[in-house]
Amino acid sequence: MNMKLKQLKTFGIILTGALLASCAAGVDDPGLEYAPQMYHSTPYEPLTQITEEEQGSWLDSNDEDGHGEFYNTNPYNNYQMNMREPVANTVRRGQPLPVRMTIDDLAVAAETLVSPFEIEDESVVKEGKALYTRFCEHCHGEKGNGDGLVAEKYAGVANLNGAAYLEITEGHIFHVITYGKGLMGAHGSQISQEDRWRISRYVKEMQKSN
Predict the structure, then answer these.
(1) Predicted confidence band at 73 (pLDDT cuts at 50, 70, 90)?
(2) Based on the domain organization, do 204 and 130 belong to the same domain?
(3) For residues 115 and 196, is the Cβ–Cβ distance under 8 A?
(4) Fewer CB within 10 A of the terminal residue: the chain, N end or C end?
(5) 49 burial level (CB within 10 Å; 0-12, 13-18, 19+)
(6) Is the four-CA dihedral 109, 112, 113, 115 of positive or negative sign?
(7) Which candidate, 196, 169, 164, places its Cα nearest to that of 180?
C-alpha cells in the first residue's frame, strides 16, 4: 500500500513538473497560450481602416478567423466603420482653434485670435446676447458691471466696463472664456467654439453701449 502511494506521489510530481515546463516561455518559444483570442483579440482602431484580410499576418494568434491582427475593420457597423457617428444633437467639444493655444497664452491670444464672424453680421450680437444671458449674466450682471447674483456672494467678479477691460480684444475674451482667469473657471467644455466667439462679440458691443 505504501509502495503504491509513493508511486502515485512520484507520478504526480512528474506530471506537475511536465505541466509547468510546458507553460514556460523562452527566447524563441512563447510557451503555451490558453485561449489566445483573449490575449490577442482583433483591435478595432477608430482612426484606421484596413479592409484587406490578408494584411497583418505577422501575428495570427487565432487560426479560426483566417486573418492577422492588423485586419481591424468591423463588419458589423455601417459602411464597415469602426467609429460610430455621434447621435443627433450631440454637443461638440474641444474643437481646434486656428492656432494652438494653452492656458498661459493669453497675451498671444489677444493679438492672434480673430473672430470668424464678419463685423457687419448683426445676428452674431443677437445670438451672443442670448448666450451671455445664459452663461455670463449670473456673475457679470446684465450690463457687465460685475454685479450679478454670484458677485453678491463672491467678491472679485470682473467689471467688464472697467477701464482695464475696455481695450481687451475679442481674442482675449475668447481665451478667458475657454481657459478661465482668476475667479472665472474654464468654459471651453461647456460652450462651443462658435458660441464663445459670439459672446466675445457681444461683450465688445455691450461695452460700447455703456
Answers:
(1) low
(2) yes
(3) no
(4) N
(5) middle
(6) positive
(7) 196
Which residues span the domain enclosing 78?
33-84
Q: Same domain for 111 and 79?
A: no
Instruction: Identify whether 10 is part of a domain.
Output: no
Strands, DSSP E only, in 34-160?
none
For residues 179 and 103, the answer to whether their CB atoms sit within 8 Å is: yes
Q: Give the count of alpha carbons within 13 A of 28, CB side only.
A: 0
Answer yes or no: is pLDDT of 172 > 90.
Answer: yes
Asked whether 71 and 60 are in contact (CB, 8 A), the reply is no
pLDDT band at 57 (very low <50, low <70, confident <90, very high): very low
Q: What is the pTM of this model?
A: 0.56
The number of folded domains in the chain is: 2
Q: What CATH number does residue 142 fall under?
A: 1.10.760.10
- What is the three-class DSSP state of 135? helix
**Residues 110 and 76 both lie in one domain:** no
User: Per the structure block, which three cell numbers stand in for 162?
Assistant: 472697467
| Residue entry with cell 452663461 | 135
